[in-house]
Amino acid sequence: MALPRTLTIAGSDSGGGAGIQADLKTFLSMQTYGMSVLTALTAQNTQGVQSIHTPDPAFVRAQFDSIATDVRIDAIKIGMLANAAIVREVIQCIAALQKEHEVPIVLDPVMVSTSGSLLLERDAIGTLISELLPLCALLTPNLPETETILQSAGVTPKATSSVLAKMMASAQSIAQLGIPNVLVKGGHVPITHDDLQEALQDARVSLPLHTDDEAIAGFSDTSVSTSRDVHGTAALSARVERSERSDIAQVLGASAFHAPRLDVFLAHGPNDVRLLRRNLPNVGSTSYTVDVLYESATQHTTVFVKPTISTSATHGTGCTLSSAICAAHAHGHPLRIAVAHGLQFLQEALQSSVEDLGKGPGPLNHGAYVMPRGIPLCTARCGAPLTTKLIARSWHLWHMYTRHPFVARMCDGTLSKAAFVWFMRQDYLYLKHYARVWAAAAADPACSPDDLRDYVTISQASIDEIRLHMAVCERIGIPRDELDRTEESRTTMAYTRYMMDIARQGILPLLVSVASCAFGYAEIGLWLKEQRQRHATPTSALDPSYEAWLDEYGGDGFQDVVRSTLDMFERCAARVMPSLEETEHLQEIWNTATRLEIGMWDEAIAQGERTEGTV
Question: How far, in Å, CA of 275 to CA of 268, rounded?
Answer without folding.
Answer: 14
